[in-house]
Amino acid sequence: MHARQSPVEHNWVFPFYFYAIDLDELEQLNRTVRGFGYNHWSPVSIRDEDYLRGSGSFRERLGEFIDTSEIDRIVLVTVARFMAKVFKPVSFYYGLRKDGSPACIVAEVNNTFGERHLYVMDGGESFPLECRHAKQFHVSPFNDMDGHYEFTFSKPGDDMSIDIKLIRNGETVMDAAMWGKGAALTTSNLWKTVLRHPFTASLTKPRIFLQATVLFYKKRLPVFKKPQPSNSMTFKG
């Protein structure tokens, strides 16, 4: 769901599916789930090159940005490749302690200009977790760099939700959310999903461009030029 509140109202909702995967289970899933691959071609796949930067395991590369000493598990919430690389606006890394509480959460945001940015947020004692972070990354040409985000994360389980609000001068400019009910990542469930929704994974970017066309031509929203990246947490995707 994406709801723009100001300076014009514009709401849209589209279906999609996402994966919530314990990073320590990637190798096992690669061996046991037919149709799922890790770091090689498969109908559905996760590849290191699509995330973060540098080399090494996910945990090693995340260690450049966060303290992993108190983290027991890392759950990646993302849109995997389907047949080919697909555009994923945002992925989330849940750094969990042994008791399941959130030590931190990292949001990895991609824009349509081939850049990505990491928002690193402190954890808390329990879920739901509420976080705040200054806006540092150009995503939409209809928003400038002013304001901050307010995130609300549910527990990464069978019934998940994530809400993101862009706040500017005390006003909610935009509200985006994703939610869903989970099913175990098995061969059967994987193929049921991709055969039932064969085009969903590849439609995100076209849907974004369609809504941008409506905002520009029909609702006459002004466009802000993309600034040159200047934050150390922004790098080429």
From TrEMBL:
<dbReference type="InterPro" id="IPR010775">
    <property type="entry name" value="DUF1365"/>
</dbReference>
<protein>
    <recommendedName>
        <fullName>DUF1365 domain-containing protein</fullName>
    </recommendedName>
</protein>
<dbReference type="Pfam" id="PF07103">
    <property type="entry name" value="DUF1365"/>
</dbReference>
